[in-house]
């Protein structure tokens, strides 16, 4: 899995696999004649979306940002998305067991970002996948997930988070907290109202798991969003605010759904157009 050093921290990407997603849904109002120059699609107009989790080793704690799609999808959802469920196997391949994770951070609570939060244990009981971990998620997101709109109700699976909130293992955040020294969250609305970016800082260097605000390198243009964004104009504004800091300060941006380029530096080229410089 891709890894790099950020100050005193070690960052690694672990994938839960890829899944098919309708290209029109992935790129919203952007015409296929434009997005197809950046991403290949099949005969059904489907593209491959990644499921990238970020593992942060601070030297004291091991932090996992996002837990992918997991293995609890309904048969109906499996017909749409499949169920790759590779995260635990990929962690295990490098010697990381669920009990090694100290902290889990969810940027929001859509099923493809928190699916491995829990698993079905004996007799079908839902139990934490990472038994020792403290879980964190946006409070506003959880409140919304309890009564979602008809438009996006399919995106929420209560088994992924309700048992953790009820047991006290999941802490609900307001949106500007420091989880541990060097790792904090900031609300970046647009995709949902309360989605949070995760900011990692060490020795003057910064990385950001920007989640579905900029899901892939193909979405870095200000106006390229997804049809899943509940507040598309807010997505543009949040991108502006992010780039105002990330570009001049040379932040490493982590892309949650890019199956090829999980992280890159976003820059402006000679004509002022956004470009991704690979690590």
Structure report:
With 279 residues, the chain is of the alpha+beta class. β3 (46-57) and β4 form a beta hairpin. The two termini are 14 Å apart. 20% of the residues lie in helices and 31% in strands. The chain is globular, with a radius of gyration of 18 Å. The model has no long low-confidence stretch (mean pLDDT 97).
Anisotropy-based shape: globular
Cα radius of gyration in angstroms:
18 Å
Mean pLDDT: 97
What is the succession of H and E elements?
Answer: EEHHEEHHEHEEEHHEEEEEHEEE
Distance between the termini: 14 Å
- Our estimate of the beta-strand percent is 25-35%
Low-confidence stretches: none
SS-based class? alpha+beta
Roughly what percent helix? Answer: 10-25%
Largest sheet: 7 strands, mixed
Task: Produce a short descriptive summary.
20% of the residues lie in helices and 31% in strands.
List the helices and strands and how they pair.
Blueprint: E1 3-6, E2 9-22, H1 23-27, H2 32-35, E3 46-57, E4 62-65, H3 75-81, H4 87-93, E5 103-105, H5 111-114, E6 118-120, E7 126-128, E8 134-138, H6 139-146, H7 162-167, E9 170-173, E10 178-180, E11 183-187, E12 196-202, E13 205-209, H8 232-246, E14 252-254, E15 263-268, E16 274-278
Parallel strand pairs: 4-5, 5-8, 8-9, 13-14
Antiparallel strand pairs: 1-2, 2-3, 3-4, 6-7, 10-11, 11-12, 12-13, 14-15, 15-16
